[in-house]
Amino acid sequence: MASVLYGWGRWAARRRGRVIGMWLLLLALVGGLGISMAGPTTTEFTVPGIESQQAQDLLQKKMPEAAGGTVRVVVAAPKGTTLDAESAQSALGKSLAKAAQVPGVVYVANPFETQTVSPDHTIAFADIQFRERADKVPESARDALTGAMAPARDAGLQVEYGGDVMEPGLEVGGPAEIVGVVVAFAVLAVALGSLIAAGLPLLTALIGVGIGVLGAQLAANVVEMTSTATALALMIGLAVGIDYALFIIARHREQLADPEADVEESAARATATAGSAVVFAGATVVIALAALAVTGIPFLTVMGLAAAATVLLSVLIAVTLVPAVLGLLGERLRPKAPKARARKETTWSLAWARAVTRKPLLVLLTGILALLAVAVPAKDLRLGLPSNASQPAATTQHKSYDLLTKGFGPGFNATLTAVVDTGRIPAADREAALGRLTTSLAHVPGVAHLDTPVPNADSTLVAIPVIPTTGPDDKATTDLVDHLRALKADVAHDGGTLYIAGATAATIDVSAKLADALPLFIGIIVVLALALLTIAFRSVLVPLKAVAGFLLSIAASLGATVWVFQNGHLNGLLDIPTAAPVTAFLPVLLIGVLFGLAMDYEVFLVSRMREHFQHTRDADQAVTHGVAASGRVVTAAALIMVAVFGGFVFNHDPIIKSIGFALAIGVFIDAFIVRMTLVPAAMALLGRRAWTLPRWLDRITPDVDIEGTNLPPSTSGSQPDAESTRRVPEPAEPR
């Protein structure tokens, strides 16, 4: 691999104009198409085959008027008054009459007729039904609907909106995300010691992210793309794009510290050595993200593929555009006072390596116990999707949730729908069968009351709204759905089919589907890690140690996420409106992304150890040398990722907020506790045994040479790491 990348890097540095022009042309082409022909994105997370989706499909087929998007308009009387006042009723009536004229609206409920007024007559709600699905309702219709409620607002009524049509759109690129990028630039400037060099990773990463995200928007014309997918592609692409460029640029400047080093030769060697690690690490990220397809969940598959494509672009840019830019800038990237500077920069990382390896067993046990303590809350992990309670407190969605809870109880935010297919029940028996079902539904513990059943035109399908006593995020609501579904046998006995649907039931079904997919996905990731790291380091113990560290990182990251988002700690600091279950697809996503990033640091750190070991056969010195040589860059890379992901913690969208937090804390734990602390301690304990491979396995394992051992000797200057460029032969394993 290193030999191929060496030639590639030299070609890119020499043909820098063509390479830079090609990438800029691709950015302009994809960017232009992505902006002008961007496809629609959705905020719905649908999963084919789950019961709630089957019910939704059935409604769409047999009762399309009930399958469209809904808006729940919640109104509250001014303090000290009620909605019984003639002025309030008149204003609300005018507003609802105007709402009925909004294009696409097929039904508007009057709360005084449907009796959806609170017992104290201070709060009421009206459901408005659209013909189209929620994600198909245009923004103009939403604006027209809010405009229609002007008479109610003018009369002093508080008007708030809920329902799937009014789901808030996802916005990224706000002040918090920008601050994250600024922090990343500051870290780059300190790590590289040059403002010019610091700007390069940001520039190349933005090119890759621009192509990836705008390309995803273009792809949304042919595949259903969630808004979270494009945000994830931006988040991951920006972080890894900066890091991959940083590793190559740092290696290039390290080599240029030798006054005799040639710029093109250095760019080629940096691409061959650090670039090999980038390609290998990037491949693990791409494979891990693409492996999300094994969950069998379409929106998660698209999300993983969009992020994987952006990471692949980041890798290609790192090994083509970066060496081209290095060739373009030439001598301007050569550091000043190279020898003194180099000694100064490795002092802290060398001291850390010696401290960690002085008493490795104590360090290892302390670190493991600390991570297990952080992981404890993960045992109570509950999965779900954000309800309106999780939206920012200032939003109309959150206010409507609070008003409904105050006026009617939390269950009105978790309305379920019992969908009954009565097509196979004899027409004469349908009424009696439905009567028995409604009686059974009403007596299930946790049901507050039932609304009037709504049949379709030929009475072969009936929808019965079921109001729970508890809210959408309450575990009791999940138990209620299970109890309601237990009535299927009774309905089947009469010849019908019962489905329990609605947004809350869909959330429960999606969460269960994702929870079932977790063990398989973890198994695939573990096997993948063992295989890739065995190929990379030609070792058995190094991959086993890496996987154990990865599992510790995942457990601790999930524990911290549960402690904050589910248990409600740090809510004020992180602007989290309320405690709620963890986003259903976050664990799978965290495992896939963090696996790739953890392997990044493992490869960059351990490859320098192996490089030194191959030259000297001194296992102890290889550990300290590896940490000293790569510690500064790995630390900078981790800080950049924490800054980028951390910026998304302050995004208003609850899903992006939780993903940003989980990835930021996960990278911090994995980089600084696992890779920079536990890995050197474990490697010190393993000694030479870390680099052994059984003969039978050695014969079938390909030699990818990510350290650049087989590169031709440098034609100018000395090489930065090697006491000798000659590889010391590995002793044969005893029989």
UniProtKB/TrEMBL annotation:
It is a multi-pass membrane protein. Residues 711-722 have a biased composition (Polar residues). Residues 178-328, 516-685 form the SSD domain. Keywords: Cell membrane, Membrane, Transmembrane, Transmembrane helix. SUPFAM superfamilies: Multidrug efflux transporter AcrB transmembrane domain. Residues 707-735 are annotated as: Disordered. Residues 723-735 have a biased composition (Basic and acidic residues). The chain crosses the membrane at residues 178-198, 205-223, 229-250, 271-299, 305-329, 361-378, 517-537, 544-565, 585-606, 627-649, 661-686. The keyword Transmembrane helix applies. GO terms for cellular component: plasma membrane. The keyword Kinase does not apply. It is found in: Cell membrane. PANTHER family: MEMBRANE PROTEIN MJ1562-RELATED, MEMBRANE PROTEIN YDFJ. This is RND superfamily putative drug exporter. It comes from Kitasatospora cineracea.
